[in-house]
Amino acid sequence: MTDSLDALDRLPLRDDLRGRSPYGAPMIDVPYTLNVNENTHPMPPEVVEAITEAVREAATGLNRYPDRDFRELRAALAEYLGQGLTEENLWAANGSNEILQQILQVFGGPGRRVLSFMPTYSMYPLLALGTNTEFVPGERSADYSLDAALAAEQVRRHRPAVTILCSPNNPTGTALGLDVIEAVYEAASEFDGVVVVDEAYAEFARDPEDTALTLLTGRERLIVSRTMSKAFALAGARVGYFAAAPAVVDAVTLVRLPYHLSAITQAAALAALRHREGLLANVEDIRRQRDRIVARLTELGLEPASSDSNFVFFGGVRDSRGLWEDLLADGVLIRDVGIAGRLRVTAGTEAEVSAFLASLEAHLENRR
Ligand SMILES: *Cc1c(COP(=O)(O)O)cnc(C)c1O
């Protein structure tokens, strides 16, 4: 590693990339992987069948480039979201990370800022770096909430070209009221700022009707980003998407790579959407496991944040790194997001959550 780092240093890297670290959630093979907020329930066999059949069929046409505008997938995504959206409002890419990258490529860039509210998704600063956009780390209240006045004031102060609101927020799990999104959009409208609401975890919210999709009408610079990686249990397929005014869709076609969404990805995503009932059937159980984690951590005297997602962020630990290591030694991988005294755990299956709680209870006294 040292040798390769030296070799890296000798390369003519961009100055702003020198000394930087890549996104690095550990990938460790353990019995209980609860660190990257996947849907850990096994894929329903009928969905595996449907995807296999769709991909087999797509394989017969792989000598040709795929549909560059993937209208069938966009129409299926619009139908899934409802809200009167059509394929003209939808766009997809290889994960919502690529969606966000494309948005920053179009609306960010040199001399422009992107504002988000910390702590939040660790990819935002990295996407800003990659697109040469200045990242502005905004603030939340001490309990990680963000009210309309606090958010709008920071938007007016920093005048970012793009504001990213993550709701429910990663790593805290907290959702934003629609009044916050409205206030941020109004503040950003004073200088034509774009507002992105990253709703990667929307399906797990206690009130899933409370989505920024309901605010799209009449807001031409509002973008709502979603993913099939979490509730849809399709993290490995890499499918993210957004809904916005048709002009925003036209704008990202300026920067997307031609044929960025492979025929296999399109086929797999379409098959998954056709079988969404089977895939989304586990969402209710995941919500129950999340609420079970929050309840038990509270009983244990820890401080779990209120969660509308499929994970729980908790404090009240003295030695969070030590506890993370204890759990790993028991085969339970959770997430240390680098905030002292706090850890994040994904709500998995009932058995996985039981294993996490048993390990936690065995080691907590030494680490609190
Ligand atoms: C997991 C996650 C995503 C999803 O990324 P994909 O590229 O779609 O897998 C997006 N935003 C947040 C906040 C996430 O936690």
From TrEMBL:
Known catalytic reactions: L-histidinol phosphate + 2-oxoglutarate = 3-(imidazol-4-yl)-2-oxopropyl phosphate + L-glutamate
Keyword Amino-acid biosynthesis: yes
Keyword Amino-acid biosynthesis carried by entry: yes
One protein family per Pfam: Aminotran_1_2
Aminotransferase class I/classII large domain location: 34-359
Annotated keywords: Amino-acid biosynthesis, Aminotransferase, Histidine biosynthesis, Pyridoxal phosphate, Transferase
Positions bearing N6-(pyridoxal phosphate)lysine: K230
Entry-linked PROSITE patterns: AA_TRANSFER_CLASS_2 (PS00599)
GO molecular function: histidinol-phosphate transaminase activity; pyridoxal phosphate binding
Enzyme Commission number, as recorded: 2.6.1.9
GO biological process, one term: L-histidine biosynthetic process
InterPro entries: Aminotrans_II_pyridoxalP_BS, Aminotransferase_I/II_large, HisP_aminotrans, PyrdxlP-dep_Trfase, PyrdxlP-dep_Trfase_major, PyrdxlP-dep_Trfase_small
Domain of life: Bacteria
HAMAP family in UniProt: HisC_aminotrans_2
Similarity comment: Belongs to the class-II pyridoxal-phosphate-dependent aminotransferase family. Histidinol-phosphate aminotransferase subfamily.
Subunit structure: Homodimer.
The name this protein goes by in its record: Histidinol-phosphate aminotransferase
Source organism of this protein record: Rothia santali
